[in-house]
Amino acid sequence: MAKDAVTEHTGPGHVAIIMDGNGRWAQQRGRPRLFGHHAGAKRVREIVNACPDLGVSHLTIFAFSTENWKRTQSEVAGLMRLFRRYIEREARDLLKEGVRVRFIGDRMKLDDKLVSLMDNLEMLTSHNDRVHLTIALNYGGRDEVTRAAKKMAFEIEQGRLTHKDVDAETLGRFLDTQFLPDPDLVIRTSGEARISNFLLWQSAYAEYEFIDTLWPDFTAEEFGQVLGNYGNRERRFGAVLA
Ligand code: FPP
Q1: Does any domain span residue 43?
Q2: With DSSP H G I counted as helix, E B as strand and the rest as coil, what are the percentages for the chain, rounded to 5?
Q3: pLDDT per residue as tens digits for the range 153-190
């Protein structure tokens, strides 16, 4: 790899965020967890709107994991309602702001109404390209790789691929993220230093930032500061610098 490519200090084009801490934020205020999720949804708008000025062309956010079904039924139902309302209320502004929205994750387990709102929003914003917002909904990295392997096995069974075609590039084409570049930077809020099954394959060479701030308190200003830290890092992608 050319030295310039690994030492240039530019901002991250693709930022992925694990939006953690909504529950604790609500608890600190003596309010139900869903209150925190609603406050978290408001931050999503602020962070998306900040992207163009910060040089972020792709933003991927973790909204609901394949493990989140283990939460209480009322929290899960409240989150699903919130996602429906978010799409209904934000669609027009997202379109106007030039945001292209796409979803990753397994849609099979999501209710029909939500899936049709997701499909419509993807279609409605498909000509935008100012910011590429990807929302991970019922998403898990292992689940995604497993589904990709299954689809690839099916193609082999049908004779459209052979085992010799199986390499990282081919597998990548079966992932939900086939339309996305790999993330440059993964941010997790709320002080937890885990990746929790988020973009496991895609983050192989990503930088990580673990921030103490709870997601509902994470402002566009702090987002800008975190991106500034990234600018001072040197990415080597496994190479040794001369
Ligand atoms: C993690 O905080 C957050 C979630 C599981 C949900 C993320 C959802 C939002 C930010 C709401 C809106 C999103 C969209 C796209 C409209 P947590 O509940 O695990 O917090 P805790 O660790 O403090 O309990």
Answers
A1: yes
A2: 50, 15, 35
A3: 999 999 999 999 999 999 999 999 999 999 999 999 99
Specify the pLDDT at position 89. Answer: 97
CA of 75, closest atom in ligand 1 = 18
On the question of pLDDT at 8 being above 90, the answer is no
Could you tell me the residue range of the domain that residue 80 belongs to? 14-140+183-230
Distances (CA, A) of 126 to 16, 25, 102, 107, 186: 20, 34, 9, 19, 25
Looking at residue 238, its pLDDT comes to 72
**Total domain count for the chain?**
1
pTM for the complete prediction? 0.93
- Residue whose CA is at the smallest distance from ligand 1 atom 15: 63
Specify the pLDDT at position 236.
Answer: 67
Look up residue 158 and give its two tokens: 């049908």
pLDDT for the residue numbered 234: 67
Active-site amino acid positions = 20, 68
**How many C-beta atoms surround the C-beta of residue 112 within 10 A?**
8
Residue count (the chain): 242
Q: Does any domain span residue 61?
A: yes
92 within domain boundaries: yes
d(CA 83, CA 68): 14
Distance 230 CA to ligand 1 centre (A): 24
* Residue bearing the CA closest to ligand 1, atom 24: 23
Centre of ligand 1 from the C-alpha of residue 164, in Å? 41
Q: What is the CATH number of the domain that holds 54?
A: 3.40.1180.10
Could you tell me if residue 6 is inside a domain?
Answer: no
